[in-house]
Design a protein that fits this description.
The chain is an alpha/beta fold. The chain has 17 helices and 13 strands. 39% of the residues lie in helices and 14% in strands. The mean pLDDT is 94.
Length: 450
């Protein structure tokens, strides 16, 4: 007699119709009406452990070498992909990123308790690693079970393609990425190239690349790795769980996060939802999403109380990873913002670069998307929504080294349309001690008051 498979502890479920379910090993990205799916967990099974037992387990596993639990994602395996076999996990020990106390920057802008969650301190330099480890691991298990998947593909403005290429290379699975030609940084372009992905640079924007990857997945059996695939959310939601763990199982007053395709904010809220449901936190933070003014469809919808959503043609922005005019996770993001008393702000190009420069002067090295979130924070302060004594965590989504082009252009005063207020170009002098000494003393006096 064939042995029956145990009941799944997680599954795909339609957001619109909870009665529609699919197995995580099915190749499915939307429900029968074309709406989004979400991964749902057997919360009754998870509730068999007490809050204190979960906390102790997560603490025990953190940064240890027992495979795969030392990862910040897989240390919470039961909350992420409980039914995956450990041998099919593809991990680079992502997560456990630094919660950086921005003491000097906070003091300069009038906040006493400001933190940055440095998600860019990861294998490929962005928070996308958290979701990609889950998706690629599930694909590896599906292939092991005999599902025909010739390759995994994504449309990307840079960071998603880097994460997919690296994790697929580690798993030995072909990866295909579609990038808007000339609209991502060189550092982002070289990552999938170096990891052996098939890279297409197309004469379109992200939304155009997204249309191509949808057709490839629908017609050619290639597995879709963009954030409309709910598996990605399961890894990305661990950001919120890690923040709670790093703050001794508490929550700040505010979480501020940049938004483009909007999978990140819905993922953040989902992690918080699970913490609440299992009694591990009691305080509900407010969430703010920051968008670039050049790519701000969520902000425009927020201005109309989310009653109307209209995709836009995103214009060029230094925050290239969120240059998206038709975000696929819009519905999930709106739901998250409503649950967490959320607000949306926007940032102009000059505001982004000036706030990055100001924060960098205090020891940070921010990507422009983090700059968007910092501008949003400053606007919350100006509106009186964030007070001096509030605890605030800003989600820094990528490492600044991936965006040196825009930083160099800013400090060289070559950034089109922006007059740099705080440039710091290298000082070019002949190799003369006397001239170097005089200029050195001048700069110390000018910058630091002697």
């Amino acid at each position: 007699m064939a042995q029956s498979r145990p009941s799944p502890r997680a599954w795909f479920e339609s957001i619109r119709d909870p009665g529609e379910r699919h197995g995580l090993d099915e190749v499915v990205y939307s429900d029968r009406s074309g709406g989004l799916l979400q991964v749902v967990h057997d919360m009754d099974a998870l509730a068999q452990k007490s809050a204190d037992e979960w906390k102790a387990l997560f603490e025990l596993r953190a940064r240890r070498n027992e495979w795969p639990y030392g990862s910040g994602v897989w240390g919470k395996k039961e909350w992420v992909l409980p039914d995956i076999e450990n041998e099919n996990v593809v991990s680079m020990y992502e997560g456990h990123t630094n919660l950086f106390w921005a003491e000097r920057y906070g003091r300069e802008i009038g906040l006493e308790d400001l933190w940055l969650k440095l998600c860019g301190n990861s294998h490929t330099g962005s928070f996308k690693d958290l979701g990609m480890t889950v998706l690629v691991s599930q694909v590896k298990q599906m292939i092991a079970q005999g599902v025909s998947i010739p390759a995994v593909a994504c449309a990307s403005t840079g960071d998603t393609s880097a994460a997919l290429a690296a994790y697929a290379a580690a798993a030995g699975i072909p990866a295909i990425v579609f990038l808007p030609r000339g609209k991502i940084s060189l550092a982002q372009l070289i990552q999938p190239v170096a990891n052996g992905a098939i890279v297409f640079a197309l004469d379109t924007d992200f939304d155009g690349c997204m249309e191509i990857v949808k057709q490839v997945s629908a017609n050619d059996g290639v597995y879709l790795a963009n954030s409309m695939n709910s598996l990605r959310v399961e890894g990305q939601k661990t950001v919120g769980i890690e923040i709670a763990q790093q703050l001794d199982w508490s929550m700040p007053d505010w979480l501020v996060i940049p938004g483009g395709n909007l999978g990140n904010v819905s993922a953040l809220a989902k992690g918080l939802d699970m913490l609440f449901a299992l009694g591990m936190i009691s305080k509900r933070p407010r969430i703010c999403v920051g968008q670039a003014e050049a790519a701000n469809p969520l902000y425009l919808a927020y201005q109309r109380d989310f009653e109307v959503f209209e995709p836009i043609a995103a214009r060029q922005t230094v925050a290239s990873a969120i240059q998206i005019g038709n975000p696929v996770s819009y519905e999930k993001a709106v739901d998250a913002l409503r649950r967490y008393d959320g607000v949306v702000e926007q940032a102009s190009e000059s505001e982004i670069m000036e706030e990055c420069a100001r924060a960098d002067r205090t020891g940070l090295f921010n990507c422009p998307h983090t700059g968007v979130a910092l501008v949003a924070l400053r606007k919350l302060q100006a509106r009186g929504l964030v007070q001096k004594g509030d605890q605030v965590v800003v989600i820094s989504t990528a490492h600044g080294l991936k965006f040196v082009d825009s930083k160099l252009a800013y400090h060289s005063m070559r950034l089109e349309g922006i007059v740099s207020e705080h440039p710091n170009p290298p000082i070019e002098l002949e190799a003369s001690y006397a001239k170097v000494r005089d200029r050195m003393k001048h700069e110390i006096d000018r910058r630091f008051g002697g």
